[in-house]
Design a protein that fits this description.
The chain has about 55 residues and is mainly beta. It has a domain at about 25-54. It is about 10% helix and about 35% strand. The chain contains one helix and two strands. It has a two-stranded antiparallel ribbon. The two termini are about 20 Å apart. This is Secretion system C-terminal sorting domain-containing protein. It comes from Nonlabens tegetincola.
Length: about 55
């Protein structure tokens, strides 16, 4: 799979709980429709998944 990093949503400490981010506003860019992969990292733990931008 090919791709490139398009931005970083948050890089600071977040308190435990649920958090929501508006990706389009936060990145301040126009994302085309398609499948995007994201990575969440906390210490040495990380999770990667994907979402569909319509």
């Amino acid at each position: 799979m090919l791709g490139k990093e398009i931005g970083q949503i948050s890089s600071g400490y977040l308190m435990p709980g649920t958090h929501e981010f508006n990706i389009k506003n936060t990145l301040n860019t126009r994302l085309q429709e398609g499948i995007y992969i994201y990575k969440i990292q906390a210490g040495q733990d990380q999770l990667s998944s994907q979402f569909l931008m319509k």
